[in-house]
Amino acid sequence: MSGEVAVKQVVCEFKIDEQGRVVLVKPSSEVSWFLERGYGEVDKTGVLVLSPVEALYLFEAGKIRVEKGEGDAYTFEELVDIFSRRSPTFWRDFVIYRDLRKRRYVVKEGFSNDLRFRLFERGEYGEKPAKYVVIPIQEGREMSIDQLLKLIRTCRSMNKEPIIAVVDRRNEIVYYSASQVELRNV
């Protein structure tokens, strides 16, 4: 034996349903694999539903296949096109999601398009609430200081630390934390 560890390859079949959700085709024991790692949510009917960014990330990683029907499957480019038509900020969101997942964070849907993701401290998913909220900004798109301050205050009111993710034209991301400073006797 050469000391290699066998890694279980999870490839599950998903489809895009009538409401445009990415759902598991057949319930299986693999549902727990996704949920334990912070992917997807189980809806009220018991079906595992992935967000578009989760679906594309897992597709790119080779963990899922998204069926068109009759044995045919979507390509990466087709999924990007479908999801981008629904959300003009999809690619920006996917780039941030993929980067944070590669850094081994659990990333869940946020509260709005401006408070895009909840970010869990490593090792705390399922045990503690998200510590951070990601505020995405695309280079070249305007955002006023007042709007940014409002978003930061909203994060603080939820006891979350705001993380500002700036995505440049080459899809490179710079993260900033926003902290409050009180100047006294100035």
Anisotropy-based shape? globular
Q: Characterize the main sheet.
A: 6 strands, mixed
Low-confidence stretches: none
Multimeric organization: single chain
Judged by helices, strands and strand pairing, the structural class is: alpha+beta
Number of helices: 5
Give a verbal description of the structure.
The protein has 186 residues and is α+β, with helices and mostly antiparallel strands. The chain has 2 domains: 12-85, MutS, DNA mismatch repair protein, domain I (3-Layer(aba) Sandwich), CATH 3.40.1170; 87-177, Trna Endonuclease, Chain: A, domain 1, CATH 3.40.1350. Helix content is 28%, strand content 26%. Strands 3-4-2-1-5-6 form a 6-stranded mixed sheet. Strands 7-8-9-10-11 form a 5-stranded mixed sheet. Helix 2 (52-60) runs antiparallel to helix 3 and helix 2 (52-60) crosses helix 4. The N and C termini lie far apart (69 Å). The relative contact order is 0.10. The model has no long low-confidence stretch (mean pLDDT 90). Keywords: Lyase. One of its GO terms (molecular function) is nucleic acid binding.
